[in-house]
Design goal:
Strand order of the largest sheet: 3-2-1-4-5-6
CATH class of the largest domain: Alpha Beta
Largest sheet: 6 strands, parallel
Distance between the termini: 21 Å
CATH architecture of the largest domain: 3-Layer(aba) Sandwich
Shape: globular
CATH topology of the largest domain: Rossmann fold
Structural class: alpha/beta
Number of helices: 9
Helix content: 25-40%
């Protein structure tokens, strides 16, 4: 449905669609991902990446991320590397949860009529498993994953979401915890907000011109209600 025909679109809002990254932005998974990357690299005989190196690749597509984090692992071992990462992550995925306050934030945005989307480096299978919980059913109007479109920071995820809802870039806000998220928004000519409680240090966000850097979910909630 074109935005102009959608009764949910009102001029009182600055953004019609708010797209969220998943890991480290809505889902408290950064440290687990770091540990799983490190364990997977060791499993295939690579040198253990530092915490910073493993955290840096969060948000990329999985193969791209693992290759970047383990430059000494030959490409013929990438299938095994991917399989070992998936094994380690699956063991602990049920231990993870949304950050405190995320459900209240999403409910408030839905109540105000925003369209909500997820734009993530996860696979479609991984995201669908994460979205399977009852509390998240029907919350998101759309989603894009790295294995069904281009990975970050390529802007295709956001271009596809804009096309799906017939929205111009200035009406779409991207929120994420990595420079890959914010660079994707910049590449798509969309405004962005960075969150500092995820994978990347917020000092790196400044050059990417986010509208705001939120240091907690309540901070993000307050900014969105005032400026979204």
């Amino acid at each position: 449905m074109p935005a102009s025909d959608n009764p949910r679109m009102h001029n009182t809002r600055n953004f019609d669609l708010i797209a969220f990254d998943w890991d480290g932005t809505l889902f408290d998974s950064t440290q687990l991902i770091v540990r799983c990357i490190q364990a997977a690299v060791l499993d295939v005989g690579g040198a253990k990446p530092t915490d910073a190196a493993a955290a840096y690749v969060i948000g990329m597509s999985l193969t791209q991320a693992l290759a970047h984090a383990a430059p000494d692992v030959p490409c013929e071992k990438y299938p095994a590397l991917t399989a070992r990462y998936q094994h380690h992550y699956a063991v602990h995925v049920n231990d993870l949860s949304l950050f405190d306050g995320v459900l209240a934030l999403l409910d408030a945005l839905k109540a105000r009529g925003h369209l909500l989307a997820v734009a993530t480096g996860k696979s479609r299978r991984g995201l669908d498993e994460a979205l399977h919980s009852v509390e998240l059913k029907g919350v998101f109007d759309a989603s894009r994953t790295a294995d069904e479109t281009a990975g970050k920071p390529h802007p295709l995820m956001l271009h596809e979401l804009m096309a799906e809802f017939d929205l111009p870039p200035e009406r779409v806000l991207m929120i994420g915890d990595t420079t890959h998220d914010l660079q994707m928004a910049l590449n798509a000519a969309c405004p962005s907000v960075g969150v500092s409680y995820g994978a990347h240090e917020p000092e790196a966000f400044t050059a990417l011109n986010p509208r705001h850097i939120a240091h907690s979910v309540p901070d993000l909630h307050a900014w969105l209600l005032a400026n979204g």
